[in-house]
Each structure stands twice: as C-alpha cells, then as structure tokens.
Write a structure and sequence with these properties.
It is a single chain. By secondary structure, the chain is an alpha+beta fold. It folds into 2 domains: 140 residues, Mannitol-specific EII, Chain A, CATH 3.40.930; 82 residues, HPr-like (Histidine-containing Protein, Chain: A, 2-Layer Sandwich). The protein contains 9 helices and 9 strands. The strands form 2 sheets. A 5-stranded mixed beta sheet has the order 1-4-5-3-2. A 4-stranded antiparallel beta sheet has the order 6-9-7-8, with helices on one face. A hairpin with a 2-residue loop joins strand 4 and strand 5. It is globular, with a radius of gyration of 18 Å. GO terms for molecular function: kinase activity; protein-phosphocysteine-sugar phosphotransferase activity. This is Mannitol-specific phosphotransferase enzyme IIA component. It comes from Euzebya pacifica.
C-alpha cells in the first residue's frame, strides 16, 4: 500500500473547529469511516481506548486509535489528520494536530514509529500546526524520516558515578512497546531519581520519559531491548522500568 492510500487527501481536515477531544476523535474517526478504512463502530473503540490512556504523544499532538479488540473493525491501514483552528485541552495538554490511526495488525508499529520519528522534528511539527496546505501535511507526515533529533536537554556527563547498569528485557505486551505499555514506561521512568534510557542492543538508546522517542523505536512483542541508567539508585530505577516492559 502506497502513501497516497495510507494518507489520502480526503483524510485530511485543515483548520477544523472542535470544542473537545471527544469531538476531535469523532472527526478523525469519521474520516476513517468515510474512506472505508474502518467499520462505523471503530470510532467508539477509539473513545474506549482514550478512556484507558491518553493518546497525546508529544507537544501539541494526539494520536488516537482503537483498542486491540477493535482490529477486526479495520478494513485497511489508514491515517486521518485534523489540524485544528485552535488548540483544545486534551487531558490538561493543548493539542493542535490530531492523527487518527487504523491498522488491522501489528503492521501499525512501523507506521506509528515512522510518524513518531517525524513528529520529533520540531520544524515539521511547527509546519503541521500552521500550514494551510493538505498536500504539505501529507508530505510532512509521510515524507522521508528526518535525522534523529538530539534530546533537547541532554544530561551532563557523569563524574565519578558508579558503572552503568544495563539490563536486557523481552517486551511482554502483545502490542509491543507502544501506546499503553509505552505510557506506563514513561510514567515509571519519570518517577526515578536518575535518567533511564531504552534501546535495542547495539542501537542508540532513547530517553525513557519521552513517549515519542519510545514510539519511534517501533519495538514489537518479543523483541529484546536494553534498559540503562547510571548513578546512585540506577539499579532500582532500571529494575522498575524492566518490570513494566516485561509485563504482558
């Protein structure tokens, strides 16, 4: 399936006016239904998932999609986008770009990872919020991936700290390290007193408190990742995050 089918121009709404996240989810869900990508009941599944965990994935961006049980309602993979005329409150966070996602199988992980990687590019994210051209929205979201963005606030180099703690762990969740599992990792990592990272063995680790960075990894069920931390309390911090990643 090519990019024009995944994100058709008819699946993009520019300057949309909505008053709440519920209306925003209805809007992108309706676009998916109109395009024939999902059954009508998929919209309700998007609301059900939102009630479980917020779909905000980064500054100003939400990526709502259905529950795992709703995959049977998906006819084909598709992305629908609503660029809002004004930001709306989304569980305490302002959101201007809403990306509805539909996929019938685990093939949504590479797609979500690709979108998350693009959304880490601040220049593209700014254009998504301000452009009035639907074609540009499609190009921004599904064009070539930008170079990985450096962490905005890199931690200072450690001085006289204990040796780094590195623990490999197999991803236990059926959906991989995405959505609800990733949100749980972010929550636990943020509660630690040391910086924790997650990455594939031999790959570049990412900040475990960054939802977009975790989604951009595109890690599937059964894959092994390494959890790392250094400094006082590193062992306990790593073990706490490992327990979340290993959970089914």
């Amino acid at each position: 399936m090519d990019d024009h089918e995944v994100l058709p121009l008819g699946g993009i709404r520019m300057g949309a006016v909505v008053q709440s996240r519920e209306e925003a989810i209805d809007l992108v869900g309706g676009l998916l239904v109109e395009a024939g990508a999902v059954a009508a009941a998929y919209g309700e599944a998007m609301h059900e998932r939102e009630a479980i965990v917020s779909s905000v994935v980064g500054p100003g961006v939400a990526m709502p999609h259905g529950t795992d049980a709703s995959r049977s309602l998906v006819h084909r993979a598709m992305v629908a986008v609503a660029q809002l005329a004004e930001p709306i409150d989304w569980g305490g966070q302002p959101v201007r770009v809403v990306i509805g996602l539909a996929s019938a199988s685990a093939d949504h992980l590479p797609l979500m990872a690709r979108l998350a990687g693009v959304l880490r590019d601040r220049a593209r994210l700014s254009r998504l919020s301000t452009t009035d051209d639907a074609e540009e929205v499609r190009t921004l979201l599904l064009g070539s991936d930008p170079d990985p963005a450096p962490d905005p606030d890199p931690a200072p180099e450690a001085v006289d700290e204990p040796e780094e703690v590195v623990v490999p762990v197999e991803v236990g969740a059926d959906v991989g390290l995405h959505a609800r599992p990733a949100a749980a990792v972010v929550r636990i990592a943020a509660a630690q007193d040391v910086a924790v990272t997650v990455g594939r063995p031999g790959g570049t680790p990412v900040d475990a408190t960054s939802m977009l960075s975790l989604l951009a990894l595109g890690v599937d069920h059964g894959e092994v990742v390494e959890v790392r931390a250094s400094g006082p309390g590193a062992r306990a911090a790593v073990e706490a995050v490992v327990a979340v990643i290993a959970a089914p």
